[in-house]
Amino acid sequence: MFNNRELKPQKRTATTSASANTAPGYPHRLNFYELPPLFEVTLEEFEECAIDRLRVLAEIESSYARNRSWDELKELTEKLCKKYLPLHANATALGKINPLEERKRDHLGHFVLRLAFCRSEELRRRFVSTETTLFRVRYEGEFKDEKAEFVESLNFGWVKVDANERKSFEAELKALEGKFPGPPKTDAQGAPQAQEYVKVHWTKVPDLVAKRRVFLRGGFAYVPNREIASIVFHEFESSLQKALEHTAKMLPRMDEDTRLVPILNNLSQGFLAGIPSEWASAPLSGDEIRAEMIDDMAKKHFPLCMRNLHESLTRDRHLKHFGRLQYGLFLKVLGLSIDEAILFWRKSFSNITDDKFNKEYKYNIRHSYGLEGKRANYPAKSCQQILTTDKPGVGDCHGCPYRHFSPENLQSSLLTHYSLQGLGTTDLHEIMRTVKDGHYHVACTRVFEITHASKGVKKGDGVGDGESVTHPNQYAARSIEIEKEQSQEGTVMAVD
Asked: Which residues contact 484 (CB under 8 A, 6 or more apart)?
């Protein structure tokens, strides 16, 4: 798939635009992804392009789970695209930047994710839904001329309705136009301009048929130009669905490629908890965290998974191996030094002797800090890793409470830990609904918003810029940051 440096055109028909030379092989910023990328890439590029795209798609799905309006979803998606998937239009790129690399990365990322998400009907459904939304956001934000040029290059089998045919259905079309609000279309001189129509088979515009926004005759729908976007979106969605089903049939041929299969398996978990940044070391805030501070910090700043581990450690004076691993790496990345970590765990394991602690636990603590064994700098576990690895058994305290607790225990735990921070019984219905739908990180994000509402966090803000929680350390770091910001504001007001 990636064995030829020559780029193949991604359009259906030739374009006569001068801007086509801006990015050879990619005349338009919009893309129907009909042909696979035929150029060489490294494994790092293969994975990186897919991860960047998946960050955007995962947040789109989270937005649906969080009941964001279309305008809110569009604004957030555009912001994430600028950060992870920049795509400059021909008009803005001409003479300034070369958009070829941007469009190649976009093209590659889409096809890598096809490989990852074609494996089951559920994965295909979620991928098609989010990709169609991304395409719609880009389509609506495209320049008018470039959008028209892109649509003109497509071949959906529609036929332009000429003046004679419009006249034969004049009464019906006029009745249809009366359903659209707003002033009639006019030309440059302000004179009324006739609405133009295209004729397609009605199965290509089922949404418009359902809303009675087209005129039907003989199995064909007469679609006004203002509604052509519906044809484009429906065609994109149906063609992608067919392509994914075809890819699924071809996928077994790749099972022997030990380089790609682990990457694809990891990517396919992306919708479960989003794509986190790696948290391998403490933030450079300059603030030292000491062992005696942990108890207070847990009550104010920790997500439910870590609060549950801390409570279990305080109560039982012990944690099993995976619990120690999950909590220990979290505290390490939070900023707890090795000396303070040893002190914290020694005080926590107060029911054993110093000799037993040194023999059975101290080495593993030093190992997690990269001071023993192969001396690796182990990152803290992300939400995705917590959800998918080391499933807790009887007597275990690790894992994700939103996934691994029973509904009754989860509701009780939420009220026990967060009622003093503003979470009430009226909030539980929304949280439990997202849990039932399998959006565990969205439920955690909503808890963050509720418990930080008194500090100015509004519904939809997430942990910053509307993003969802994807990592326990992200949750805690943002909570600490908000508290510092409020403290600084209070200091400034006191000085004034």
From this structure: none
What pairs with residue 220 in β-bridges?
201, 217
- Cα–Cα distance list, 234 to 136, 210, 231, 356, 381 (Å): 10, 14, 5, 66, 39
Listed in sequence order, the DSSP H helices in 362-471 are 363-368, 383-388, 401-404, 407-418, 425-436, 440-451
Contact assessment for residue 466 and residue 448, using Cβ atoms and an 8 Å cutoff: no
pLDDT at 332: 94
Comparison of pLDDT for 231 and 128, the residue scoring more: 128
Token match 């929680």: residue?
469
Rounded Cα distance, 73 and 60, in Å:
7
Q: What's this model's pTM, rounded to 2 decimal places?
A: 0.78
Rg (CA), the chain: 27
Residue 54, CB half-sphere, CA atoms under 13 Å: how many? 29
Residues 58, 270: Cα–Cα separation, whole Å: 7
Helix (H, G, I), strand (E, B) or coil at 484: helix
Q: Using an 8 Å Cβ cutoff, are 38 and 8 in contact? A: yes
- Residue 14 gets the label, from left (phi > 0), alpha (psi -120 to 50) or beta, of beta
Output the CA torsion sign for 126, 130, 136, 138: negative
Instruction: Pick the more confident residue, 256 or 290.
Output: 290
- Using a CB cutoff of 8 Å and minimum separation of 24, what contacts does 137-142 make? 137/73, 137/74, 137/77, 137/78, 137/81, 138/29, 138/30, 138/81, 138/87, 139/30, 139/229, 139/232, 139/233, 140/74, 140/229, 141/74, 141/78, 142/29, 142/30, 142/89
Give the whole-angstrom CA distance, residue 372 versus residue 367.
Answer: 4
Residues 460-496 as b/e (b if ≥16 CB within 10 A, e otherwise) read bbbbeebbbbbbbbbbbbbbbebeeeeeeeeeeeeee
pLDDT tens-digit readout, 413-442: 999 999 999 999 999 999 999 999 999 999
Whether the CB-CB separation of 160 and 200 falls below 8 Å is answered with no
DSSP three-state, residue 147: helix
Burial class (CB in 10 A: 0-12, 13-18, 19+), 63: buried
Burial (CB count <10 Å: 0-12, 13-18, 19+), residue 225 = middle
